[in-house]
Amino acid sequence: MKNAIACIVTMLNILCLSAQTNYQSTAKEMIRKMTLEEKATLVSGKGMKLPGMNGQPAGSVVGATEDKVPGAAGTTFAVPRLGIPTLVLSDGPAGVRIDSVRKGNSSRTYYATAWPVATLLASTWDTAMIKKMGVAFGNEIHDYGVDIILAPALNIQRNPLGGRNFEYYSEDPVVSGNMAAALVNSIQSVGVGTSIKHFVANNAETNRYTSNSILSERTLREIYLKGFEIAVKKSNPWTIMSSYNKINGTYASENYDLLTTILRKEWGFKGLVMTDWDFIDGKDHVVQMKAGNDLLMPGTPNQTKAIIEAVKNGKLDENILNENCERILNIIFQSPAYKNYKFSDNPDLKQHAQISKTVAEDGMVLLKNNEDALPFKKDDHTIALFGINGYELIAGGTGSGDVNKAYTISLERGLDNAGYKVDADVRNMYTSYLSDEHAKHPKKSFFQELMNPTPPIKDYMPAEDLINKAAVSGDIAVISIGRNSGETRDRKLEDDFNLSDTERTLIKNVSNAFHAQHKKVVVVLNIGGVIEAASWRDDPDAILLAWQPGQEGGNAITDLLSGKVNPSGKLAVTFPVKYDDVPSAKTFPGKEFPAQATTDMMGMKQIPTEVSYNEGIYVGYRYYNTYHVKPAYEFGYGLSYSKFTYGNMKLSSSTFNKNITATLAITNNEKVPGKEVAEIYISAPSTNLDKPSEELKAFAKTKLLKPGESQTLTFNITAADLASFYTNKEAWIADAGKYTLKVGASSTDIRLSADFNLPTDMVVEKVHKALAPQVDINELKGN
Ligand code: BGC
Q1: Which residue minimizes the CA distance to atom 6 of ligand 1?
Q2: Tens of pLDDT, residues 432-462
Q3: Which is catalytic among the residues 126, 276, 278, 721?
Q4: How far is 415 from 20, CA to CA, in rounded Å?
């Protein structure tokens, strides 16, 4: 039997290989038949219908690609005479972003599922759950005629004010890389492609086209490249999107070190690299081609012209252009478009909505639960729901990470659906306030909103007697606080990271009134990124962090509040006590040089900016733990309605040879079923090099454990997990000495630990000198 399986696997591998070889030879043959104009047209795509871009109907050489999937972010050009179809590329990380209504077709809509945002996905710590979601997401991409989804996004959440943090997973590369790999593998298993983005060190939105990220090779390798490395090696994404910014002085899309030396030579990436959607046509397209950036998006006629001229005048070797084309063709050959897939335009949105709800429930984090305020008790029937956000849930962030969804379930609706009574006076007050506020702001188009966002509606302070009345007639209070953000702008400190005065007063007054009646108060946080919580968290009895949970959010939150589902999410980002505690607080979003400002194609000012990553590798918990700065809620933290014990830890050896296996058992000691996340941290010797006090190396979530049930988890630690990057040796080296493997319920709540020894230094991998900074960086060095 074993032999038969081995035989089938070998045959499948041979078939795969020959299919690949076949594509390659076909690509080479195809390139021999292509004219220079056709090649230059293939490498410059089409997307935005803005002046100066390839948004107009195609010229003589290329086929019409107009609107195969209206609302998709872009396409490549077809070459009909050679049977090369157009590839459709669509955003984004939280769902397929296409137009829901199409010209000339008023009879139907094309809504897409709004999945929970990436920060919530990371908080599940549940790669099996992400895979389940990925298959459904992949089917939806396929059914809507899209070939490549511009997702997942896995930049590191370096600073809480990052405007796109909701699109990203974590402050930690091991979480980010593994989550991205799970999503890529599952989406691609359906036969469509992904584009992991934004490669790399793109951690702020302010001046995003003109900022220069300045960081050391070690910081790049250990923090900012690491997640991408994991995702590339574990999941072979079809494509990668290079970021807008410069890295140590060179734009990502012009960066040979990044796109060829590291990505292709060291990591073995076989797919194509495309640019992010450039609205400033200031890059050198010849250099981009040479660097290995195969596809320029959204594409301009000038790019095509520049490439043709460069080949003619010898500035660009045609063989390089051929390689760029070959990589694009090899992806086209795998695509649904090439296989002439007859897409249904009819994904199973009902089933996908249910899956999105299950994922949402898996990633919400219970931050506080004094005296078991949650779940609701049997006689908690009437809920006094405060905060405008309770009546208008934020399913996900704005910009290209947004989705045209059929509906969003608010918390109000979720409570209604589950049979709770929402206090009518409080409800009427909020709904009439909201409808008055909406009337003041007419709806804008996607671009108008991107350039000039409608200011968020300010929360409303209900009159004291309304709160007091609700405290008498209601059984429990729920206060919902919301935050939204998105591309092109970072978040603000006041009234955003910090709560507004109205929000603080609301929490205080409602807490006082309900506590005077011996009733509980719960705060629900419907946010995409980290906020300040230390100054107000003592007021309510419980806090549920719902993140931006997708279109079924209100139903999912209700199921956690009611206890139908036991919370099992944990933080993949730290909540600091105050903004000044953030290690990058002083260097975010960077130092501007206004005298050199330019304007982008959308009319937005872009000021060259230098962002010095002075905190080095000490990002998130690596900083808070090493420097003993106590956060409000630490990385890896999250409560449950169950209590779990950790035990029976065994290491396969106390001396490290090629790897070490750790096994341990987790037991549910409560009367309710629940799931627990176990986090494996390593503390490494810092004899030769400063090291963070702990670094996450692996994690796993148990199945749903019944009361009293245990599960044994096994973790494999390899030499690569012990290694740090030595810049002077351009190598990953594991230092000889004592290592401690710690099993944490969070990054500070360590439940088990065991030591092992590495007898001699181990050079795990030699790499190239690449991406070196040209200036001195005054980096933190551990303590
Ligand atoms: C964003 C990308 C997105 C692209 C296409 C860019 O502005 O940075 O994340 O995929 O637009 O919409």
Answers
A1: 277
A2: 999 999 999 888 877 788 778 888 899 999 9
A3: 276
A4: 52
